[in-house]
Each structure stands twice: as structure tokens, then as C-alpha cells.
Design a protein that fits this description.
Chain A: This is ABC-2 type transport system permease protein. The structure holds 2 protein chains of 2 kinds. By secondary structure, chain A is an all-alpha fold. In chain A, about 75% of the residues lie in helices and about 0% in strands. Chain A is globular, with a radius of gyration of 19 Å. Classes of the chains: A mainly alpha, B mainly alpha.
């Protein structure tokens, strides 16, 4: 049992962090070696965020508030969304996007299972895409633009931080859970739906019709990645929301770990 | 005539080939409808009493599905993996294969996306005037040609760069912003509206949707056709320069 635990969760946290650091450093050196690609990625990150901000600014030429959110509050929301999207694109997507194809069907998972570290860690966090951090930096810029002139409380900032971390954990756990489906149905590629639902996180859930709002709160909790942390930052923390966010993160992470273990028990390998 | 027969064969072949990939096609439908759906909810929240907003965005969803183009995947990858060489050796224009696949994917997307459009239309009581929908048909056809030309033009940059997805992604952002998905272009600030009315993107999406939704009675076909001519000319020139640059190694 203890061995199995080590196989799934791996050794100490420090060792795993060191592995992330080494992988990140390697990926960064690979990325900056291709300078034209770097320019393209930077430009696309700028135009992507510019388009998102422009779409919202157009709305505010016609209205003073949207679903109870002012223009500055919306910028905080977009900044937070972009920041988490950047972190997801840097640390989660390079590993779990197309996992059914790369991990299960092509048998890359076999390699992970043979390596002396947690298979869940290797499959979900070992690769990184440092250029996606540009989105993170731009997100901070928009966030700064949004909070300029707003009066923030220390408690609000702390709860924003806690909820952003909780949102990231839930994002990671959801990606793992969707990837785990591949153990049972290798052809099912549900993460595209997750990515599509992700787009809706850029807007407060109050904008959407009730059925979509329910999906965004309980199925793909996109509310947690931007709306909830931004509301905590701007309107002060609410204990219930904070506890709910942390519990959701812990619950989702535990569920992801359990699903991964169950999936591994079923997995029989794809390569020789 | 020979070209039309070849295109017909290619279309039939591609429709059959793609029929097995319904799950993948469904994911494309979902990706295509997300942006217009966001626009629909956002602008319905701004103008809750204007039913033409819902009608317009339901039409945008339909136009988007009918005009989607993926040449950065279907064509550019052939440049990257060198299989374009096989196409160049065939006694037929390369573009026939590209158009055949484009039309097959669009046909499947429209078929699979139709329930989404009908459901959204009924759920929002969009109340279309069917004569307006019929009137929009030629505009949708030309919009489909424009989107194809635009995407194919950007996909041709694969002859020079391996970042074609970034280039096409940028092109899609322009369609989103100036084409009428982010906002109906009548709601853009004046200067931007005037710019958007001149650029080709409005003709790719917003114009046919506005006619189908009855927000505009007609006009603008000439503007669309001028852009078709311009884009055909640019695509032809870029294709010629690109093919001269193209080299492949191996069998």
C-alpha cells in the first residue's frame, strides 16, 4: 500500500518542486531558442487580450454596468481570468491537453509509470510551456488597470489570493478528472468542452441564463476561476465563499487523486 | 466542367471520410458556438427588451457554422509534413482538394449544429421572418467564400513560418471583433463602425446575419463581391510565390 502510494504521489514535495523547476528551465531554454516563434506568441497574447478587453469596452460604451459589474470591476475580472488562464496554459495544458491521445493511445503513460516519481505528477505537471506566462503578465497588467482607483482591503486581497489558488487547484483537478476518463473511454475527448466552458469564465456568471449558470457553478466551476475571486477582491471577503472555495479545491484534488488511482488499476499499457 | 466534376468527387469522398469523426466534429461545433453565445447573453443583458438581438445572434451562430474554415489544419499541415508534394504532382489544381474538405466539414458542422441553432431559436423565441432568411442566402454563400479565402490566405503563410496557427488565430480575432460577433457592428462606437463597414470581416459574418435576422433589409452584396475579387487576387499571388519557395525532401 505504501509503495503504491509512493508510485502515485511520489516522494517529497521539495523533490517534486525541483523537478518542476528543472522542467521549466529546460522548456524556457527551448522556447527562447526560436526567437521568431517567441515574437509570434507575444504578439498573439497581446492581440488576444486586446480583443477580449475591446469586446468588453464596447459593451461599456452602451451601458454603465453589466450584470451589476462596472467597467473597472470587469477589468479586474478579465485580469484575474487572464492570470489564471496564463498559469493553466503554462503548467497544466502542456500535460493534460489531448491526454487520451498522447498519454493513453500512444502509450506515453507507460514511460511515466517506469520513472521514479509520482505518475500523477509526471502526467499532469512535469511539462511546462513558459511562453504562456506572457498571458499571466498581461493579466496582472489588466488587473492593475482595473484596481487603480479602487479602495481595496487587506482581507480582500488575501481572500482573492486564496480563491485564485483554489481556482487553480480546481482547474488542475478537473483537467485530471477529464484525462482519467480516457482510462475507461480512450476515444472520449471531453477537454475541448472544458476549454469551451472556460471561455465563459471571462464574464460574471450572472450574465448567463440559469441553466448555463448552474453548469458554470457546479459542473465546470468557472465561477470560481474569475468571478468569485474578483468579487472577493472588490467587495471584501465572505467567510462562506472562502470556506466553500477551499473545500471545493480540497474535494476536487482528493477526487482527482482517487480517479487517477482507479484509472491506473484499470490501465494495462499500450506499448510493448 | 471537369473541375466541377472533380470537386464533386472530392466533396463526396470527404463527406464520407468525415462521417466517422462525428465526435471530433461535435467538439468543433461547440467551439464555434461559444463566442456568439457569449455575445448573445452579454448584449441581451444590455438590451433585455430588444428581441432582434437574440434573433441576430442565433443567425450569427448559423452563419459561423456554415462558414467555418480550418485550412491551417487541413492545408498548412500538408506543407509542414511535405505531403503537399503529392498534391502538386496530381493533374488537378491543389485547391480542389482544399475546397472539397472545407465544404465537407462545413456540411457536417451545419448538420450537427442545426439542433443547437433550432433549440436556441425556440428557447429565446427568436421569431424569424422566413423571407428574410431566404433573402440572406446569397449573402451567406458569399460570406462562406470570403471566410475560406481569408483563412486560406493566412494558411498560406505556412510556406514561410511554422506559426501558422498564431497567424490564423490573429485573423479569427479580427473576424470576432470587426465581423459582428463581439457586438453587432451597429453598436460599435462611430469611428470603429465606419472602419468595420469597410473591412471584409463584416461581410463574412455580421452582414448575412443581420439580413437573416431582419435588422437590415439588403444591400452590401457588391461590397462582399469586391472583397472576394481582392482576396482571390492576393491568394493567387501569394500561392505562386509560396509554391516557388516550397521545397520537400524524400519520397
Amino acid at each position: 500500500m505504501a509503495d503504491r502510494r509512493t508510485a502515485v504521489y511520489g516522494g517529497g514535495i521539495v523533490k517534486l518542486l525541483r523537478l518542476v523547476g528543472v522542467g521549466f528551465s529546460m522548456a524556457l531554454r527551448r522556447s527562447v531558442a526560436f526567437r521568431i516563434n517567441l515574437v509570434f506568441d507575444v504578439l498573439l497574447a497581446f492581440t488576444g487580450l486586446g480583443t477580449a478587453v475591446a469586446a468588453v469596452l464596447i459593451v461599456f460604451t452602451r451601458a454603465d454596468s453589466l450584470a451589476g459589474w462596472s467597467k473597472a470591476e470587469f477589468l479586474v475580472l478579465i485580469g484575474t481570468y487572464q492570470l489564471i488562464t496564463g498559469l493553466r496554459g503554462t503548467f497544466i495544458d502542456p500535460n493534460l491537453s489531448w491526454f487520451p491521445e498522447t498519454g493513453i493511445r500512444n502509450g506515453k503513460l507507460d514511460g511515466y509509470l517506469l520513472q521514479p516519481a509520482s505518475s500523477l505528477f509526471l502526467a499532469s505537471l512535469s511539462l511546462s510551456s513558459p511562453l504562456a506566462l506572457i498571458q499571466f503578465v498581461l493579466g496582472i497588467g489588466v488587473l492593475g488597470w482595473g484596481i487603480a482607483g479602487q479602495s481595496l482591503t487587506a482581507a480582500g486581497v488575501v481572500s482573492w489570493l486564496v480563491l485564485v489558488v483554489a481556482g487553480l487547484v480546481v482547474t488542475w483537478a478537473l483537467s485530471v478528472l477529464l484525462a482519467c476518463l480516457a482510462f475507461w473511454a480512450p476515444k472520449l475527448q471531453l477537454d475541448v468542452f472544458f476549454h469551451s466552458a472556460w471561455q465563459l469564465g471571462r464574464y460574471p456568471t450572472d450574465v448567463f441564463a440559469r441553466p448555463i449558470r448552474v453548469v458554470l457553478t457546479y459542473v465546470f466551476p468557472m465561477a470560481l476561476i474569475a468571478s468569485v475571486p474578483s468579487a472577493a477582491l472588490l467587495r471584501g471577503p465572505q467567510v462562506g465563499v472562502l470556506v466553500g472555495g477551499v473545500l471545493a479545491a480540497v474535494g476536487a484534488a482528493v477526487l482527482a487523486g482517487a480517479a487517477w488511482r482507479a484509472g491506473l488499476r484499470r490501465y494495462t499499457g499500450a506499448t510493448s | 466542367m471537369r473541375t466541377a466534376v472533380l470537386l464533386g468527387f472530392r466533396l463526396r469522398q470527404e463527406v464520407l471520410e468525415w462521417s466517422g469523426a462525428w465526435w471530433f466534429l461535435l467538439t468543433l461545433v461547440v467551439q464555434a458556438v461559444v463566442a456568439p453565445l457569449i455575445g448573445l447573453f452579454v448584449w441581451s443583458a444590455v438590451y433585455p427588451d430588444d428581441p432582434s438581438i437574440a434573433r441576430y445572434y442565433v443567425a450569427v451562430i448559423l452563419v459561423t457554422l456554415m462558414t467555418e474554415s480550418f485550412e491551417q489544419h487541413t492545408f498548412s499541415e500538408r506543407i509542414y509534413d511535405g505531403t503537399l508534394s503529392h498534391e502538386l504532382l496530381r493533374p488537378q489544381p491543389v485547391v480542389i482538394g482544399v475546397i472539397g474538405m472545407n465544404l465537407a466539414i462545413r456540411a457536417w458542422l451545419t448538420l450537427l449544429g442545426a439542433p443547437v441553432v433550432v433549440l436556441t431559436g425556440f428557447a429565446l423565441r427568436a421569431g424569424f421572418d422566413w423571407s428574410a432568411v431566404l433573402r440572406s442566402t446569397p449573402y451567406i454563400v458569399v460570406a462562406a467564400v470570403l471566410v475560406f479565402l481569408w483563412t486560406f490566405l493566412l494558411a498560406l503563410t505556412a510556406f514561410w513560418t511554422d506559426r501558422v496557427h498564431a497567424v490564423v488565430g490573429f485573423g479569427s480575432q479580427l473576424i470576432f471583433l470587426f465581423g459582428g460577433t463581439a457586438a453587432p457592428i451597429g453598436l460599435l462606437p462611430d469611428t470603429w463602425r465606419r472602419v468595420a463597414e469597410v473591412l471584409p470581416f463584416y461581410g463574412m459574418n455580421g452582414l448575412p446575419a443581420e439580413i437573416a435576422a431582419g435588422r437590415r433589409s439588403g444591400g452590401g452584396l457588391g461590397y462582399q463581391l469586391i472583397w472576394v475579387v481582392v482576396l482571390v487576387a492576393v491568394v493567387t499571388v501569394v500561392w505562386r510565390i509560396g509554391v516557388r519557395r516550397y521545397t520537400a525532401v524524400g519520397s
